[in-house]
Design brief:
With about 120 residues, the protein is mostly helical. It contains five helices and no strands.
Length: about 120
């Protein structure tokens, strides 16, 4: 139980750290946020829990394919805000577009016989 509390604490700490850094410097906050911290933590947790390497490799490859459609969020969200849409509307539309692109990516990967 203590191990899971530690994992939650470290993972949450990383998120808090990024948001605090971003308050002071959007550039440095963006730099830290653009690091694959969540992915690295998941991979490290899996390694320390002695998950077989093939599962870790599969996770890493799946992350690669799913990062591609998620990048649309970071183009669409600021564009909608700059066009005067409210924060929540921009967030909602950007999230919906990203979800649609995730499904599209899964369809494309299936068409090329790439399984995640």
């Amino acid at each position: 139980m203590g191990y899971y509390i530690m994992k939650i604490g470290i993972s949450a700490g990383v998120i808090v750290m990024v948001s605090e850094i971003a308050k002071r410097s959007s550039l440095f906050g963006a730099l830290v946020a653009s690091l694959p911290l969540t992915s690295l933590l998941a991979i490290l947790w899996m390694h320390w829990e002695r998950v077989e390497q093939q599962k870790i490799a599969d996770l890493s490859q799946s992350i690669f394919y799913l990062v591609l459609p998620s990048l649309a969020f970071f183009l669409l969200f600021p564009a909608l805000l700059q066009r005067g849409l409210s924060f929540w509307t921009s967030l909602g539309l950007s999230t919906c577009a990203t979800v649609i692109l995730y499904f599209l990516m899964l369809w494309v990967l299936k068409a090329f016989h790439i399984s995640l």
